[in-house]
Amino acid sequence: MRTKTGEINEALPAGRRTKLVAYFCMEYGLASSFRIYCGGLGILAGDLLKSARDLGLPMVGIGLLWRQGYYRQMLDERGIPFPAYPTYRYDFLKDTGVKVKVVIRGRQVACRVWLVDRFGNAPRYLLDTDLPENEPADRWITGQLYGWFEEERVAQEMVLGIGGVRALRALGIDPDVYHFNEGHAVFAGLELIREYMQGLGLSFADAWRRTRERIVFTTHTPVKEGNEEHGHDLLRYMGADLGLTYGQMLRLGGDPFNMTVAGLRLARMANAVSRLHARTAGSMWAEVTGAAPIIAITNGVHLGTWQDERVARAARAKDPDELWRAHQLCKGELIEFIAGRTGVRLQENVLLIGFARRAASYKRGGLIFRRPEIIEPLLSSGRLQLVLAGKGHPLDDAGTDIVAGFTAVARRHPTSVVFLPDYDMEIGRLLTRGCDVWLNNPRRPMEACGTSGMKAAVNGVLNLSVLDGWWPEACEHGVNGWQFGDGYEGPDQDERDLEALYRVLCEEVIPCYYERPERWRTMMANSIASTAAAFSADRTLREYYELMYEVRDYIGG
Which residues fall within 8 angstroms of residue 460, CB to CB, at 6 or more apart? Predict the structure, then answer.
């Protein structure tokens, strides 16, 4: 009987047989209407699956079918955000006919396996517990992405990891490489260990060694406190330990059980998502014995999804005037969208800065507003406009306060500052094409990468950013964008960065926009030329195959 593995490799052109990769991720951003993603982690996963399809590389995605997705961000009459959770049904999902079972809290939980392949992506299989044969509580395991509390998070990760491996087996797919995008998929490694121990009679040490040969791991979160941990009593109650002893689990993930530590110990190779992040992650996890080496593979974006075709054509033609016209069309479309959503009509001939991020404190969303005596005259004089967007976790009060601060500023400046609620892929695409400048000011070195700036750059939207994440690799100050600050990481970083931000904005960015239009257009062209290939998802995937999957002779570029 021909297996799915055989079908996937046979679909490749002659000479492109290579390792089959199963990519595990909690979320995937493939299209705005398919709401099973939250932010950058999922957008990266979706972009990589699209590039795998474009390059003809054998990769399948494993994820969960979230019936309510992340959440819809609503605003009350005071501008305070609150969550809404509609339930979604998707008629384009293909039922594979496969069901697998995972024992969770002592109960057999059935998981249907769906196939998604309609967004120009490599095959992606999604597990779904919303089945009539499951207990009501178990049907909601795949309800809300990152929803509820710790016990449900473990249940979700058991479905992703344990259920994901079993789904691959039932589909007849035998991956050469298991790629875990963050620690959410760690239980897949435990399932592989269980298979080796029970199926082949191997010792725990030998099963672990065999498992490590097949796993690679991507770490994102550059703050130790942000890396997920669970108590061993909870894992045992949930059944997530798969019968391993406390001592064996301790050797994998420590006590409490740290999902990133376990990922690093289960993998033979790991990567950070930018060069700076590789240094940060290497320092963070230096004391983890038995951890995989962490190399730098900087994230990239799928150009077919994020780069406007009119901008791309003008860039290829090397025509700065045509590039400007294409940009102004994108800006006009953004302005129309903003007017339709908010009733506010911004001006096409006024500098427009965009800031759209997950509403986390370290991203310093309100930094530019901290000195009203400087920023407010710019906003009231018609020299500057800002469009803001962002979501925090619904249980994160700090994120709620950040968004409330955005809406308060927009109310004070109703003609020059706009907040767009419910930040999603559609809003992200419009902003990174239609703004003039993309502002990025995280507290270094806490931004692992920051792919929204890449999306802006490939559209000729000029980055104005601190030297964090990917920007130190790309920035040529005054040539393809601007940096502010020198990468300082001391205790008064906020004040030093704020002073540098105002200086660069007022002395370089604003004068260039209004007084040196030819230079601005040249900088736009330079931005595209320096980033479109170097920071594409195609390049990222090629580096995965060469450096992580150890495929040296594939035909992929």
Answer: 311, 315, 323, 327, 524, 525, 527, 528
Structure tokens at 379: 């906003």
Residues of the chain below pLDDT 50: 1-2, 11-16, 553-557
Name every residue whose Cβ is closer than 8 Å to that of residue 467 and which is 6 or more positions away in sequence.
Answer: 276, 444, 475, 483, 485, 486, 487
| The two three-digit tokens of residue 330, written as one number | 């994108």
Q: What's residue 148's pLDDT?
A: 86
pTM of the prediction?
A: 0.95
Helix (H, G, I), strand (E, B) or coil at 322: helix
Q: Is the peptide bond before 445 cis (omega within 30 degrees of 0)?
A: yes
Integer Cα distance of 48 and 5 in angstroms: 19
Contact criterion met (CB below 8 Å) for 157 and 186: yes
3-class SS shares of the chain: helix, strand, coil, % to 5:
45, 20, 40
What confidence score (pLDDT) does residue 394 get? 85
Report how far residue 528's alpha carbon sits from residue 459's, in angstroms, rounded to the nearest whole number. 6
Which residue do the tokens 């050469």 mark? 176
Is residue 527 within 8 A of residue 461, CB to CB? The reply is yes
- CB neighbourhood size of 79 (10 A): 17
Tokens for 465, please give them: 């950013």
The pLDDT score that the predictor gives to residue 101 is 98
d(C-alpha 459, C-alpha 457), whole Å: 5
Question: What is the DSSP-derived secondary structure letter of residue 161?
Answer: I
The confidence score (pLDDT) of residue 555 equals 39
pLDDT tens profile 424-445? 999 999 999 999 999 999 999 9
| Residue 233 exposed, middle or buried by CB count within 10 Å (0-12, 13-18, 19+) | exposed
Cα separation, 454 vs 273, whole angstroms: 13
- In the chain, the N- to C-terminal Cα span, in Å, equals 33
| Two structure tokens written together for 118 | 């309609």
Task: Identify the pLDDT of residue 15.
Answer: 42
**Predicted local confidence at residue 261, as pLDDT:** 98
Which residue ranges form the domains of the chain, and what is each CATH number? 4-301+540-548 (3.40.50.2000), 303-534 (3.40.50.2000)
The mean predicted confidence, pLDDT, of the chain is 94
Residue 377, Cβ neighbours under 10 Å: how many? 11
pLDDT at 252: 98
Q: Is 107 strand, coil or helix?
A: strand
- With 0-12 CB in 10 A as exposed, 13-18 as middle and 19+ as buried, what is 10? exposed
The two beta strands, 257-258 and 229-230, are: antiparallel
Q: Are 438 and 411 in contact (CB under 8 A)?
A: no
Q: Look at residue 4 in the predicted model and tell me its pLDDT.
A: 67
- Joined together, the tokens standing for residue 4 give 């799915």
The crossing angle, in degrees rounded to 10, of helices 186-200 and 204-212 is: 130
Q: What is the pLDDT of residue 556?
A: 44
pLDDT at 550: 84
pLDDT (0 to 100) of residue 12:
45
